[in-house]
Amino acid sequence: MDSSLAISAAASAPASAAPPAAEEALLQAARSGAMPLPELLERANALQAASQPEAAAALYDAWLANSVSPLRHVAGFNWGAVLSQLGRNEQAEAAYRLSLQAQPGFAPAHLNLGHLCERRGDIEAALAHWRAVFDAGDGPGQPPTQPPSQEHLLHALNNAARLLEVQRRYPEAEALMRRSLEVKAAQNDVIQHYVHLRQKQCAWPHYLPVGEVTPNQLLMGTSLLATMGLSDDPALQLLSSVRFVHEKVPKPPPVPLHTRVPPRTGKVKIGYLSGDLHMHAVGLLTPELFELHDRSRFEVWAFCWTPESTQPVFRRQRERILKAMDHHVRLAGVDDATAARLIAQAGIDVLVDLQGLTAGARPAILGHRAAPVQVSYLGLPGTSALPGVDWMLADRFVMPPELLPYCTEKPIYLPHCYQVSDRQREVGAMPTRAQYGLPEDVFIFGSFNNNHKFTPEMFGAWMRILAQVPNSILWLLADNDTARANMQAAATAQGIAPERLHFAPRVAPPDYLARFQLIDLMLDTFPFNAGTTASDALWMGTPMVTRAGRTYISRMAGSLLNAIGLPELVTENLADYEKLAVTLGRQPSRVKSIRRYLSEHGRSSPLFDLPQIVRDIETEFERLAFEARGG
Fold it and tell me: Which CATH superfamily is domain 434-608 in?
């Protein structure tokens, strides 16, 4: 969705001084009160085009101080836009307010004032200004003298919805998205947020019709992440990736960048590309991978734009990751082409993309082909369709032969499991059930996956499982109050008392890991399986039932269970999933036996044999690097 209103005078290169005489003559003409508005706009635009925004701002200032034109609001708005471009935000705000005094309700001024308020952190003021555009009379100033244009109306609706979503005020955000789509159906970006927002709220059906939006538009506007949680059809996931690349990713240059640097010799250089090297699923799984690389054969680089954080837990995780790197190149604020050149100049043999098409990714870097071998791993458990990404780390369970026609990447098969994990995770003290308000004498099913992974089909299965295991409860995370209320309502509708749903609060990572021990049986989500959460559960000795589908992401937990030696907990359809969960729920002794197996053998299984997994990855990377070198 749009996040800023374009100003009438475009920004250009750094300013150079205008001849003083010419500038003074213009100012004198503006001060005379006789300069017509069209001439003012033409002169100011020319000054901006000549890289003289300060002179343009002074010209607007002089004209407004001496003009009684009925169109002062236009000049005031443009003055504010130039001042904003110069970073003089307080003066820009005053200019926009001057514009509103001259023309109460002038929509462009409200829109840009909203952005200024948002930048200084005044959320309510920003929303009020945008509301003044789409709800005349509700915001600051007077009602508009005429309805806003469709462009201005959509800008206000979409930015207010965006900001409300960031503030986790999901129902308000969704209501504005619906209004926006009722005005104009063909808005893929709004549809994308609308569908995923309904997923976050467990608002079912996810594809609730709105306005004139067609079922095809809803499908085509759905993001790849949302698609992965709605369907295990590999063709749909490929379609979503291809559409994103076609619409959002620049066409790659014709000549691979790595061909312009001297041939590589010596140690194989591995570069990890990501903006998630901190307290993120990827940043939680990978530290030991980085630490265990054989430095006699490999040199390890991080190319990242991970945001800095003052939170101690984020900082500690990031410090550990960066300490494991031989070199760290910060790409925040560096454009994609320059970033690719830095990677090529470093002589990277194997570039590992840890982000794919997820939020904050920079896929255009990969299109430059800065390294001869470019590999997708962990961040996007599925095909990206990105030009320049030729390989994907996998195993034969998550990427079986029947899936290959729907993947643009070729598989690099690891012998046991695709996933690395961190064996040095800090675990808190063993909690009691009472600590979390859990009954002492019940069987606890649990799912600590994010709510956007929940589907009505899987939730319905969970309710049928509870119905068949009377002395049981379901322990869940609730990402937001709306999701909690919607799940409780869905449980009631299916004959399950809402009190049988318990909700876990957010806690520090060590306490999060510790409380897995209170769950008797974890119930996996489908088609978006647990990944990091499944690793956490199995590391803590918690059994899990999963359903494996037709896509990489719907087979992740099955891969982990096979690698840890529990293939019998993997099912292939909903009926078998329910049946197995009910059987285990009715046979607590069998669950205890599985827990005992995990306690005795889980951490020594191939799933958690990190040194071996890293050696397997290195063997494949070395082979591909030497092939690329012609060796």
Answer: Glycogen Phosphorylase B; (3.40.50.2000)
Contacts of 182 (CB under 8 A, 6+ apart): 210, 211, 212
The CA radius of gyration of the chain, in Å to the nearest whole number, is 28
Closest CA to 112 of 2, 191, 189, 186: 2
Q: How many CA atoms lie within 13 A of 146 on its CB side?
A: 5
Which residues of the chain, if any, have pLDDT below 70? Answer: 1-22, 136-145, 631
Query: What count of residues does the chain have?
Result: 631
Looking at residue 25, its pLDDT comes to 74
Q: Are 109 and 96 in contact (CB under 8 A)?
A: yes
Distance of alpha carbon 12 from alpha carbon 606, whole angstroms: 57
What the block records as the tokens of 46 is: 């020319």
How far apart (Å, rounded) are the C-alpha atoms in residues 330 and 345? 14
pLDDT of residue 57: 85
1-103 against 271-413: fold identical: no
109 bridge partner residues:
none
CA distance 607 to 559: 9
pLDDT at 335: 96
Distances (CA, A) of 101 to 83, 90, 97: 18, 17, 6
Q: Which residue's entry shows tokens 């005349």?
A: 136
d(CA 196, CA 227): 9
Residue 495 CB-density burial (10 A; 0-12 exposed, 13-18 middle, 19+ buried) = exposed
Place of tokens 């630490």: 291
Q: Beta strand pairing status for 268-274 and 373-376? A: unpaired
Q: How far apart are CA 161 and CA 183, in angstroms?
A: 14
453: tokens are 């992974």
Alpha-carbon distance of 296 to 370, in angstroms, equals 24
- Domain residue spans of the chain: 1-103, 271-413, 434-608
Residue pair 545/522 in contact (Cβ under 8 Å)? The answer is yes
pLDDT of residue 4: 43
CATH number at 271-413 = 3.40.50.11380
Which neighbouring-strand residues pair with 302?
Answer: 272, 328
Helix 107-119, helix 150-166: angle, nearest 10: 20
156: closest CA among 215, 213, 218, 110?
110
Provide the 8-state DSSP code for 202: T
Contact 290, 321 (CB under 8 A): yes
Burial pattern 456-481, b for ≥16 Cβ within 10 A else e, equals eebbbbbbbbbeebeebbbbbbbbbe
Q: State the DSSP H helix or E strand holding residue 376, giving kind and residue range, or none if neither.
A: strand 373-376
Q: How far out from the chain centre does Cα 306 lie? A: 13
H helix intervals, 148-207 = 150-166, 170-183, 188-200
Q: What residues form DSSP beta bridges with 300?
A: 270
40: left (phi over 0), alpha (psi -120 to 50) or beta: alpha
Q: Per the confidence metrics, is the pTM higher than 0.85?
A: yes
DSSP characters for 235-283?
HHHHHHHHHHHHHHSPPPPSS-GGGGSPPP-SSEEEEEEES--SSSHHH
For the chain, the first-to-last Cα distance in angstroms comes to 48
The CATH number given to 1-103 is 1.25.40
> Residue 3: what pLDDT?
44
322: number of CA atoms within 13 Å, CB side? 18
- Token pair 């205890």 in the structure block, residue: 592
- In 3D, which of 603, 611, 523, 551 has the Cα closest to residue 233? 551
